[in-house]
Specification:
The chain contains six helices and five strands. The protein is of the alpha/beta class and 175 residues long. α1 links the parallel β1 and β2. It binds adenosine-5'-diphosphate. Adenosine-5'-diphosphate binds next to α1, β4 and α5.
């Protein structure tokens, strides 16, 4: 879908998605119901030393979205100031997931600064299902690196991808 009527609600859900977890997927499912179009912004910034390349992360997100059968979602890579990216996408709203109290301070500060950078774009926080709230990509990778089962945290195909990447690299890496 390329044409955006002026009244269309467009949301951007930004993140690293290294890899996409069931927590992210739940936020996407909830977010997609709130807007006409949801753009998942996959950051291509290499400073986080990710396990998966931007193209791999975008492909994984795209595959999960297709598997969920959600049609108003697009996946777009970005390496820019979030508010500039959001503006370029004609977004009205930034969606973020909130997990525990630990997320709050950072998210609060980011939302406050983003509000000053672009007062036209609102940040909206969503909570994942209670059972999915503790999930974090970083911990998924750590658990997998130490041979733990990540089946409860990611989809079967993401699980296979993580296991394959760890097998490929052969040993504990610095992700
Ligand atoms: P992570 O913090 O897991 O590395 P991202 O940078 O990809 O993830 O996060 C993108 C967004 O998704 C952030 O707003 C983050 O708070 C949110 N998020 C990630 N995991 C969850 C979860 N389990 N429940 C709710 N929100 C989440």
């Amino acid at each position: 879908m390329t044409d955006n009527p002026a009244s269309a609600r467009i949301g951007v859900y930004p993140g690293t998605f290294d890899p996409i977890t069931l927590g992210h997927a739940d936020i996407i499912r909830r977010g997609a119901k709130l807007v006409d179009r949801l753009i998942i912004g996959v950051t291509t910034n290499p400073s986080k030393n990710p396990m998966f390349t931007p193209d791999e992360r975008m492909a994984m997100v795209g595959r999960e979205v297709a598997d969920m059968g959600i049609e108003n979602v697009e996946v777009v890579g970005f390496n820019a100031l979030l508010m500039k990216f959001a503006r370029k996408q004609n977004a009205n709203v930034i969606l973020r997931g909130l997990r525990a109290v630990a997320d709050f301070e950072y998210e609060y500060q980011m939302a406050g600064m983003n509000q000053q950078l672009d007062p036209e774009i609102e940040t909206v926080f969503l909570m994942a299902d209670v059972s999915l709230q503790p999930i974090a990509s970083k911990l998924v990778k750590e658990i997998a690196l130490f041979g733990g089962d990540i089946a409860k945290f990611v989809s079967p195909s993401v699980r296979d991808d993580v296991i394959a990447r760890i097998a490929q690299r052969g040993q504990l890496g610095d992700y």
